[in-house]
Amino acid sequence: MPDAESDVDLLINFDPEQKSYDNFMELSFFLEDLLGRKVEIIRPQSLNKYIDPHILNQAETVAH
């Protein structure tokens, strides 16, 4: 069970035309300011094949 001090892990698919390091970092800083806690953004392409099933089992879709 996450606590109030835990970070927020987000699995995000970026639009290929919008995918850049600057957009990645800008979104990360924006979400940290908005949520008031550390945010870790994970792209589906960077998931480890051993950890992937555990992450996807806990994932909740919030927007398409």
Q: Which strand order do you get reading across the main beta sheet?
A: 1-2
- Please state the structural category: alpha+beta
Whole-number total of structural domains: 1
- The average pLDDT is 84
- Strand content is 5-15%
What Rg, in angstroms, do the CA atoms define?
Answer: 13 Å
Poorly predicted regions = none
With helices defined by DSSP (H or I, 4 residues minimum), what is the helix count?
Answer: 2
Distance between the termini: 26 Å
Considering DSSP H and I runs of 4 or more, what fraction of the residues is helical?
25-40%
- Compute the number of strand runs: 2
Q: What summary fits the major beta sheet?
A: 2 strands, parallel
What general form does the structure show? globular
Topology as a string of helices (H) and strands (E): EHEH
Give an overview in words.
- By secondary structure, the chain is of the alpha+beta class.
- It has one domain (8-57).
- It has helices at 21-35, 52-58; strands at residues 8-11, 39-42.
- A two-stranded parallel sheet has the order 1-2.
- Strand 1 (8-11), helix 1 (21-35) and strand 2 form a beta-alpha-beta unit.
How would you sum up this structure in a few lines?
It contains two helices and two strands.
Q: Helices and strands in order, then pairings?
A:
Blueprint: E1 8-11, H1 21-35, E2 39-42, H2 52-58
Parallel strand pairs: 1-2
Question: Which properties best describe this structure?
Answer:
single chain, 64 residues, alpha+beta, two-stranded parallel sheet, 2 helices, 34% helix, globular
